[in-house]
Amino acid sequence: MTHHLKLFHAYTACTRVTLTALEHVGAVYDDELLDMARGEHRAPEFLAVNSQGKVPSLLVDGALLTENGAILRWLDSEYPKAGLFPRTVSDIEYARQTGDLFWLSSGWHPYARAVKVPSLWTTGDIAPVRERGTQLVTGVVRQLEQRLAGQDWWYGSDWSIIDTYLWWACVNAEIGGFDLSAFGGIADWRARNEAHPSLVRALAREQAALQRKRSEYA
Amino acid sequence: MAELRLYHQPGGCSRVTLAALEHVGAAYEDRLVDLASGEQHSAEFLAINPRGKIPALVVDGELIAENAAILLWIHHRWPDAGLLPASSGLDATRQLADLFWLSSFWHPTVRAIRMPIRWTTGAPEPVQERGSLLLAEPLARMDRLLCGQTWWFGESWSICDVYFCWICGIAEGGGYPLEGMKGIVLHRQRTMAHPAFRQAILREQAALARGQE
Questions:
Q1: B119 interface with A at CB cutoff 8 Å
Q2: B4-82+196-212: CATH, from 3.40.30.10, 3.40.250.10, 1.10.15.40, 3.30.505.50
Q3: Is this complex's ipTM strictly greater than 0.85?
Q4: Has residue A2 got a pLDDT over 90?
Q5: What phi and psi values does residue A201 have, to the nearest 5 degrees?
Q6: Cis status of the peptide bond prior to A56, with omega within 30 of 0
Q7: Would you place residue A1 in the very low, low, confident or very high pLDDT band (cuts 50, 70, 90)?
Q8: A29-33 and A57-60 strand pairing
Q9: What secondary structure, in 3-state letters, does chain B show?
Q10: Domain A5-83+198-217 is classified in which CATH homologous superfamily?
């Protein structure tokens, strides 16, 4: 592929999924970590890239692509043999995969946010938002646990980027205090995810970007 | 032709799905799911959609869940119907990104305003207030955009117009004032006058009338 790619990402954000996808397809890309705590996503330099100030932002030959799910689908279409998603035999099956991406972005992600950063959903006391978020995350985590009962990965015997996205949402909820220990199937699947080479390389890449950023501010 | 059945709730975001099916001229059955009485959690409905959510579209016995995924499937089955402007390339990816934006930012945010108890076990007011704060800047941005163009993508109507119109209606229903936003007010009027929207409303009314029999 001859596109010039540059990903803007943030530490522990859902850009971990985008990085994993880029690593998995073997793309050559530049990356830059934005320090959200310092407000770099609201700085004029980045607003010139993406006026909404959001990550992930992927520049493709200078043209902006946003929204994690859309970027994952674009990478899948550019690298169809890389196996980001299992091959589908029907348009219905393809739509169901896309539905899983929407489920993650409009369900899991805002639910995990309610647990990890409840202040994003309230101007008041965060405890009742975190409690509600815990209920919502429990609902989807149970669905994941059920699905993993007879199989290693979300789609069966093969890893897909959906596993990384689900992994990220689970880990984020856990960082926010969600107790995953009751879910044995998820514990095994999580270990498989964390041993997956594409995620291992993505986290190394994130760490390297973080070190660059730290030396910049040192 | 495939056999289609849509599970929906009048006034829900399934109105957007109905408008899409109407716009492409699909033949389909529709079934009401009464969210107020918790029918989405009934064993009967969970057998259809284990996630207990509407809209749910069943195509020849197979489920497609998540509104935007259903909209994209309809677009690909009826590529010449004009549900969305692009079918391939970076423009199609951007259009996909817009659907992600609508479903994962706008939709949960207006839920905080209209249905704050979905995001809290406590008092609704601080969640509504936060939702309004989250909405203010993107809404002002959309208002400016729609002052200068007729539809979401510019010259041509698309299903994103219906989705956005529905979102604005939910925000307003939750008490968010829209009347000062001329671009948005006129865009809503245009979208509600479009045949796809009007037919979706008629279909909802017919479903409600059947339900009362």
A1: yes
A2: 3.40.30.10
A3: yes
A4: no
A5: -65, -40
A6: yes
A7: low
A8: unpaired
A9: CCCEEEEECCCCCHHHHHHHHHHHCCCCEEEECCHHHCHHHCHHHHHHCCCCCCCEEEECCEEEECHHHHHHHHHHHCCCCCCCCCCCHHHHHHHHHHHHHHHHHHHHHHHHHHCHHHCCCCCCHHHHHHHHHHHHHHHHHHHHHHHHCCECCECCCCHHHHHHHHHHHHHHHCCCCCCCCHHHHHHHHHHHHCHHHHHHHHHHHHHHHHHHC
A10: Glutaredoxin (3.40.30.10)
The domain defined by B89-194 folds into Glutathione S-transferase Yfyf (Class Pi); Chain A, domain 2 (1.20.1050)
Are A86 and A163 in contact by the 8 Å Cβ rule? The answer is no
Q: State the burial class of residue A180 (Cβ atoms within 10 Å of its Cβ: 0-12, 13-18, 19+).
A: middle
Cα of A210 vs its chain's centroid, Å: 17
The CA distance from A173 to A117, in Å, is: 9
Sign of CA dihedral B135, B141, B143, B145: negative
| Among A60, A101, A129, beta carbon nearest to B119 | A129
CA distance A56 to A40: 13
Task: Give per-residue pLDDT as tens, B111-162.
Answer: 999 999 999 999 999 999 999 999 999 999 999 999 999 999 999 999 999 9
CB contacts of A41 in chain B (<8 Å) are none
In whole angstroms, how far apart are CA B188 and each of B13, B137, B146, B163, B176? Answer: 15, 19, 10, 11, 15
Q: Does residue A4 belong to the interface with chain B, where contact is any CB pair within 8 Å? A: no
For residue A123, give the nearest of B139, B106, B107, B112 by alpha carbon. B112
Q: A48 is written with which tokens?
A: 């010139």
Contact between B29 and B56 (Cβ < 8 Å): no
Q: Tokens 């896309």 identify what position?
A: A98
> What's the whole-model pTM score?
0.97
Q: Of B118, B105, B113, whose CA–CA distance to B133 is shortest?
A: B113
Tell me which residues of chain B have a pLDDT lower than 50.
Answer: none
Contacts of A110 in chain B (CB under 8 A): 104, 108
Q: Do residues B121 and B96 make contact, with C-beta atoms less than 8 angstroms apart? A: no
8 Å CB contact of A132 and B66: no
CA distance A211 to chain B (A): 31
How near does any CA of chain B get to the CA of A128, in Å?
A: 5
